[in-house]
Each structure stands twice: as structure tokens, then as C-alpha cells.
Amino acid sequence: MEPSPTLSLDAASSVEPLRILMASSEAHPLIKTGGLADVAASLPAALRDLGHDARLILPAYPLAARQLCEPKQLCDLKLPGCRTNVRILEGRHPDHDLPVYLVDAPEHFSREGNPYTDLSGRDWGDNAERFLLFSRVVALVAQGLPAIGWHPDVLHANDWQTGLAPALIRDQPGHPATVFTIHNLAYQGLFDRATFDRLGLPPSLWSLSGLEFHQRMSFIKGGIVFSDRVNTVSPTYAMEVRTARFGCGMDGLLRQIGGRFSGILNGVDYRIWDPKTDPFILQSYDRETFGLKAENKLELQREFALPRSEDAFVLGYIGRLVEQKGVDLILAILPILLQDPRIQMVIQAAGERPTEQALLAIAAAHPRQVGVLIEYDEARAHRIEAGCDSFLMPSRFEPCGLNQIYSLRYGSPPIAHRTGGLCDTVVHVTPETLAEGTATGFLFDDPRPEALLNAVQQALQLFRADPPAWRRLATTGMLQDFSWEASARQYLELYSEAMADRTMSERPIHTGAALA
Length: 516
Ligand code: GLC
Description:
The protein is α/β, with parallel strands linked by helices.
């Protein structure tokens, strides 16, 4: 129950210091497959900066356990579905003053590599068991385990891997308020009926107002149905997912929960992502010294074995290779773009095998213009942001997107599809926005190759024909401030609403869910 002595309550904040348990299956740099990891580390850190006692809980993947600072074992638990005891380890986050709990269940989490898939890219066959176990432990810690001696006011769960935790604590006396954040509605944690039966969950959860979703069990639905407040990571995506086009079958439910569902734009951590202080880039720079950015371009060309030329227009891409990200649109337009010998493209990505192969093939056919690395290397991601002239983000949908926000700060104007968080963070170039100095990038309306090609050509035209206008565009982007503080304050507001509402009686069913 003791608030940590290092906490200082922000004088400007009117709220009492809160105890918040942030549950996530990834957090940078302990383990990362996508943007969720950045948010799960930097949001609790920002909440602590505002004087609140936020703590993080995640599975003890080997990579995460190796990086935990000052680890100590807190307790040993016997849980259903687990032959050996589950240990809870406590330690500190390597980059922030942030307590971290790791759920050490070797049978479930002691596997190297990707947290969700095996080496061949297939989902682990026991993902339902793994993340039910994680959710059970999250629910126990949220209820205030004696061995920890800390009772959170709010459980903040993230994405499907933690979706069952709000369902499990809902009927427990004195449970904390619950907030559930959807980082990507396309990943729902769907399993068949036989899996539901095997898990031994309360049978009442198999219902339309529980976990059942088109005859399957949905983990994400647990978070949506049973949490006091639900949000997603940008206001535009929050509107989009209420429609059939973006709702992945959940649009009806999200419309139905009405004011309980909202959008809060992610922040970014400028202590990590700022070209002025970035230790991973060759040449630091800021708005005033924008010209120095070119040094990073030459270095990037060297790193990708492309001819070094300041005059080239270098496009960058970083990301997972899944349909969402629209890399097929990039592949479709590259043959046309590459007819201009002064265009180069660097790509760091991994994911679906056919797309990886197509990218490698185009790089092999155009070794002087295309560089492709199939992997994810965090330090190189910084060098791409700093070294490219413009950053591509043709995502079909994008709940928030972080790379476009990084590219704004690195003076590499994004070219992005007008959707989700991309709309909420990029101001499209028009004669008017350029003249008034608000433009920060290029948005195109349809996720089709012609529209992307058009936007790239518009960018290229400005880059070549009007360097001062390009510089103004890039440095306006560098001025934008998407730091966490404002978003963290909105989360605090959401936590207060959730706490005020805890006695909600209009929740659809009583689950009778038992904790462990
Ligand atoms: C997911 C979304 C991405 C978002 C991130 C963090 O990776 O796809 O748009 O920025 O989560 O919330």
C-alpha cells in the first residue's frame, strides 16, 4: 500500500495519486513486436512522471526476464491449468523508474523468439492457455496479492492477451476499476468452442453478452464487455471501428457501448525518439541544423549498400509485413518509381514470407536503388527515420501508428493513407496549408497503388522543385509535439470515470467467474 517514496505529485494535477496496474504482453525494450510495446512502457512512465504509482505486469519471456533490473522473487502460486507453480518476479524497468512484475510460468512463456508464434510463423497451439494464465495472474495482482502488498485502484489491460482479466475480476468484491485499450481490433484472440470447454472457464461466459463471438470464443470481447471504460488509440480509429468497414465484426458492440468507448491518441517518448539526442544516429540535428540531416542519408545509403548521393530522394519504410500495412501497394508502385534513377527506397521489415520474398526480389533486381533488410533492428529503425527524406505509411487501417510521428520529429515528412491515427497526426500538404505553415506531410484517400503513386509524386515534385518549401514542411513536422503528457492526462480522466462508475449495474451478465 505504500506509495513509492520517489513519487512526487504533480502540483498542476487535480487528481489524487492513483495506483495503476498496466497489463500488457509486451513492453519496450523487454520484448517488442509492435507499437503496443512502446506504449506499454512509456504510458506508465508518463503517469509516474505525473505523480501516480503506475506499475507494469507482463509474461516472463526469456528476453524480458534477462533484461529486468534487480529481479527478486515475490511469490509462488498454484494455479489451474499449470502443472508447476507460477512465480511472480519483481524488478525495475531498464529505462524508466518503473516497477515491473513478470509472470514466470516456464511451461507457458519460456520460449525464445516471438511471443505469439513459433519459428515457422504459426500461432503457438496453446495461446489460449498461455494468455488465460497470464490474465489469471493479472487478475490476482489487481485484487491485491498479500505477497505484493499493493492494491491498485485501476487495472489497465491492453489488447486480447489481457482481455480475460476484466472478465475474471468482475464479480470479485472490492475489485479495482477496469480500463481496456484496443491497440488493434484485427487481433481478437479467437478460439473454438472445444478450447473454451478445455479452459474450464465459467460456462456462463459462453454467451452473446459474454465471450461468444460467432460461435467462437473471443478474448478481446472479454475486455470490451467487462471493462468499465474501453478506448482505442486515436479519435479517428474510434470512429472508424464503429463502422462495418473497420469494425472487424465488433462495430455493433462498439456502437452499443456508446459513451463507455472513446479514442485517446498515443504519445511518443521523445527521450528515445529525437534526432537532437539520438545515440543511434551518426549526426545529430534539430530544426535549426536541418541541413546536417543529409549526413545521416549518406550513412543510411552506405548501410543499405546503395550508392551515396545527397541528391537522391530516399523513401523509408519500417514495419511488419501484414496486409494491414499496405506493403503490397509499395511493391505495386516501385517498378514505376524506379524508372527515376534518383529515387531510392530502404525497407526494414519482416512478416509474411511471400512479401519478404517479393521485397528481396525487387532489391536484387535494383541493387542501386532498393535496399531491403528482413529483420527488426531497433537501432536501425532510428537510422532510417533520420536518413530517409520521406517515410511511407500506406496502411489500409492504422489505429494510431507511431512511425509517422517519429518521422515528423526526424524531419522526414510522412506519406500516409488518410485513416485512423494517421489522420490525427499528419496535416496534408495543400497550397493553403503550405502557405500558412501548417502542412506536415502527404495524405492520400484510397488504399490503392494509383493514389499512393500520386502522393509520392507530389512529394517528389516539392522536394525537387522547391527545396525551401520542402525544408519548411519538414521543419514544421519537427515542431509538432505528441509527447505523452497530454495523453497521460486523458488516461487519468478515463481512470477517474471508470472508478466513479464501478458500481455499474447495467452490465449485461453476471458471470460468477472465479479467480483462480
Ligand atoms: C498497434 C497498432 C498501431 C498502434 C500501436 C500502439 O500496433 O497497429 O497503430 O500505434 O498498436 O497503440
